[in-house]
Amino acid sequence: MSVKAFKLVSAVEREMLMGDKNYINIECIECCGKNLYIGTNDCFIYHFLLDEKISAAGKITFAATKQLHKYLGLKKPVSELKAASALTRLLVLCDNTITLVNMMNLEPVPTGARIKGAVTFALNENPVSGDPFCVEVCIISVKRRTVQMFMVFEDRVQIVKEVFTPEQPCAVAVDGYYLCLALTTQYIILNYNTGVSQDLFPYCSDEKRPIVKRIGRHVFLLAGPGGLGMFATVDGISQRAPVHWSENVIGAALCFPYVVALDDEFITVHSMLDQQQKQTLPFKEGHILQDFEGKVIVATNKGVYILVPLPLEKQIQDLLASHRVEEALVLAKGARRNIPKEKFQV
User: Fold this and answer.
1) 3-state secondary structure at position 117
2) Residue 343: pLDDT band by 50, 70, 90 thresholds?
3) What residues have CB less than 8 Å from 194, skipping those under 6 apart?
4) CA dihedral for 43, 170, 217, 252, sign (positive or negative)
5) What is the C-alpha to C-alpha distance for residues 236 and 310, in angstroms, rounded to an integer?
6) How far, in Å, are 180, 196, 237, 265 from residue 231 at the CA level?
7) Where is the CNH domain (predicted)?
């Protein structure tokens, strides 16, 4: 049974990005407030301002205004972008090097501070240093079976720790001192402060893309065996039942009370409250699905779209209208903290 939980709305049309240059592809995206950044395969970063508009009928649209674009001077794709808004810096991974650029003018920092030898990286959203003018970054190093922790300041970087892993890591998420890593054959939790590691469950990274995502304090969402979306805590236990995805999930995001997943042909929406699949949206050629401060964004090689959640009150009314009282109650109770008190009473 389906629920209309999200609507797919176009944000950046292909013409705005590439005009008639068909060879340009979107490699990565980052969104911070109204700022949307796009990294492309021809080594450019584009900066757009996203404006959300709501019509009198309640229809939401997005208008993207291009601010500027910047060529990074290499013949390599921009593979990852992460914003550190407290530093007004954008961390840009290109050709195994993380460069710091200014979020507004996209100019590299004058000191030339950079981190070399990075395959991929993640920011620590639950930092341990307590310094508001610093972000903590974990990189998977080009050195075999190695991850490194850095502190990144406005114009300099400092290595904090280097940790060796039992197998080659290929994906990482960070929470405090805990790293959740996808290795070649399994997922593990590793405390980089004590060096203690804990096996979670097996996984073959040769066969499909691992997903490791921090979704809350001390909790990660992982693509498990058999097409399961598994929740794991830093203690290595699961406090929630898994959701059933398709076998070939490319990306996943959390928009409470839903887990959203992307595969080759569809975006699927599962409820964390009863693990049921609630909505399926056809979406071909998607290769990115991420959530930024509660905003879920999907992208193909040529365009960017936003999944706009419908108000929970509306979803509950729709369920009641189709006589699905039990589901409506589960949603109302489970999402209570996201519904204004007076509306919840009704």
Assistant:
1) coil
2) low
3) 177
4) positive
5) 34
6) 12, 20, 8, 24
7) 23-296
Tracing tokens 């649209």 back to the chain, one arrives at 61
More confident residue, 229 or 14: 229
Please list the alpha-helical segments (H only) found in the chain.
Answer: 14-18, 312-321, 325-334, 341-345
Q: Give me the half-sphere count of Cα atoms (radius 13 Å) on the Cβ side of residue 143.
A: 9
For the segment 96-112, what is each residue's pLDDT rounded down to a tens digit? 999 999 999 999 999 98
**In this model, does residue 143 exceed pLDDT 70?**
yes
Quick check: 80 and 28 in contact, CB under 8 A?
yes
At residue 43's C-alpha, the angle toward residues 42 and 47, to 5°, is 110
Cβ atoms 25, 39 nearer than 8 A: no
d(CA 123, CA 103): 16
Q: Report the alpha-carbon distance of residue 174 to residue 323 in Å, rounded.
A: 43
Sequence-separated (6 or more) residues with CB below 8 Å from residue 178:
189, 190, 191, 192, 218, 234
**Which residue has tokens 């019509």?**
55
